[in-house]
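OP here, attaching both records as promised.
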Amino acid sequence: MSMRIISGTAKGRKILSPVNEGRITQKGELRATRPTLDRVKVSMFNIISQKIYGARVLDMFAGTGSLGLECASRGASEVVFLEKFRETYDILVENITILGFKEVSSVHHRDSYEFIKSLGSRGEKFDIIFVDPPYLNNMVEESIVLIGKYDLLTENGVIVSKYDYEEPIYRPTEKYELVDERKYGKTILGFYQQRIEE
C-alpha cells in the first residue's frame, strides 16, 4: 500500500512502507504495520488541524511515521517518534531523512511504555499525542493511563487514538475524557482531552 503526505510542505510525497505489512517477531509477537487509509487520515487531520502548527507532537507506536510526518509537513515545531521494531524503525529513519524533517524530528528505537516514563521524569509535555498501536491488543487504555500518570499532555492538547471496530473504546473517568469518536468502516478514531472540572 502506497502512503503519501496529504498536506503541507511535503504534500504528495511518498512514504516508504515495509515489504510485509504483518509478520511474527522472533518473540512470537504479531507486528502488523497498519497504514492509515487516506480518507481516515484526511478526516483525522481535519479535526486536529488547528492544533498542529508550532505543536510538539509525540507519535507512539510510530510505524513508518505517517502520522508524525504529516504533522511535520504541516508545521509542527517538533515530532518525537517512538518505534520498537527494528525493521520498521529503519524505514522510519529513512522516511524522515528523505522528506527532509531531521531538524524537527527526534526518533527513538524504544518501547513506547518505557520511554514515556523517561519523558515524564524530565517533565516533557506535548500538544498532540498519537496512540496507534497494533490492533486487538487493548494497548490504547494502558497508553492513555501512562500519559496521564506522567502528565505528558498540555492543558489544551489532544490524544488521538485508532481502534479496530472489534476493540472496546476506552472511556476514562478521571484525568481525560473522550471528546469525539468517529467510525470509518472497520476503523474508529477516538479523541481525548483533559477533563474540565465543573
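Record two, same layout:
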Amino acid sequence: MKGLLQRAAEARVVIAGETVGAIGPGLLVLVGVEPMDTQAQADKLLHKLLNYRVFADSEGRMNRSLKDTGGGLLLVSQFTLAADTRSGMRPSFSSAAPPDLARALFDYLLERARAEHGQVQSGRFGADMQVHLVNDGPVTFQLQV
C-alpha cells in the first residue's frame, strides 16, 4: 500500500462541479493499493499518516504530526500510484489491486481514519476527480508499507 502524503495549506476534491471533500491545513494523501495489500498494511499506513512528523514546531523544525496539530486529513484513492513505470513509455497497471480489493481496503482505511482522527474527508473511489491542492512548503513524501 502506498500513500503520497502532501502537506496542505488547503485541499479539496471536486466531482462534476461539486466539492465532495475539503480540508484546511493538514494532509492530502493519494492512496494506491496493490494486490497483496492487507488490512494490517492499511493500519500501518494510517499510523504513519497520523504520526509522521511533517509540521513545524515553534523552532520551524518538522517535529509535529497530524495528530499533534489536529489538522485535516483528505484521503483520495489513486490506482495510478501502483503503476509499473520501469520500462516503456506507457504505464502498466498490472501491479494495481483489482477494483474490488482496492475499494475494500480504501474503505477500511477511511473508516479507521474517521474512528481515530476527527477531521477526515475523502474523494470518491473510482470517480473522475479534480483534486485541488495548495501544497504547504512544498512538502511531499511517498510512504510505502
